[in-house]
Amino acid sequence: MNRGNVRVLDKNLVVYLGGGCNSVVLTSIDGKEAIIVDTKWLSSAKRMRNLIKAPKVTIINTHFHMDHSRGNGLYPEAHVVSGEVNWRHWDFDSGKSKRPDRILRTGDKIVLKLDDELIHIWDLGPAHSENDSIVFFEKRKLLVVGDLVVVNQHPVLIDKNTNLSMWRQLLDLIEREIEFDTLVPGHGPLSDKAEVLTMKRYFAAASAVASDSTKFGIEKQNFQMYSSFPVFGSFRRTISFMRREIEK
Ligand SMILES: [Zn+2]
Q1: Domain containing 18 — which CATH number?
Q2: Is there a contact between 135 and 5 (Cβ–Cβ < 8 Å)?
Q3: What's the number of domains the chain is made of?
Q4: Could you tell me the pTM of the whole model?
Q5: pLDDT band at residue 1, thresholds of 50, 70 and 90?
Q6: Spacing, Cα 116 to ligand 1 middle (Å)
Q7: What separation in Å is there between the alpha carbon of 142 and the centre of ligand 1?
């Protein structure tokens, strides 16, 4: 793990940025338990695995996409919490790692406790993926949103269940309902509530172009600093997904 990508927010909570996705690890005061939100993939998953010493591990996956779940297999004994999806998709993306022990359904809200921290998990249903959950560390006012928010980059639209209109509604809900100071996006640097507003503006811009293509040039300019992802993440792709939903 590149040291620059490890953010120690306090004695017990560390954010590992990048290497697939951003991950959060909360370790109990006695060092015996850890809660991991999203496990990365490939060599970054292994590097993070080597840094986690707690014998008892709970994994929360914000969603099943492989850059967030492929590392699960490195923790065969872990208790896994994640949303219900087509299990063939789960098997493929997670590299056939164990299916969740605790399966959440759209609308479910559960709370885990570790020392004096309450960890709220909300299953919000299909938006970026087939089923997206967010995780709120109440005492720390830290919110992990998976890929519902990405920073300085175009969202990767890869899932045929992507539902942009629901995604935009969920951003409204996150902005309205949750009092948080720190935002851990799925990809990109740590941020705060302002980034939820930026993501909303991004979708509003894509939506404006979807209904009036003459606005493409001007709207694109506002996001020209964003990095794109080969084939699956660009302003054009977001607009075409937007258009498909409008035409439905
Ligand atoms: Zn994703």
Answers
A1: 3.60.15.10
A2: no
A3: 1
A4: 0.97
A5: low
A6: 30
A7: 20
